[in-house]
Amino acid sequence: MKTKDPPHWNTGVAGDHSAQAERKADNPHATLPWVAQQRRWTTEEAAAALNLQPQTIRKRHSQTGTYFSVRPIKLPNGRLSWPANMMELLITPNPQA
To answer: pTM of this prediction?
Structure first.
């Protein structure tokens, strides 16, 4: 029994994903256009900016899935990519404190 593809995967022809595969090959973040536009930091860059060891950020991420509510994306090579604007908010002192 053949199952139908979910509607968001449908490219017009049932079972034909060649157009979608081509788009992903050109741009791995084609389904997430906002990712390509954001500035991103590696774990090492984020740790240097926060004056921490990279393992501190990795450990917190492995325990909670975030680093102080900042959620990274996991790249195909296994590395974490952190949104720079959110990490900069962690560096900026809070004037209300």
So the answer is: 0.59
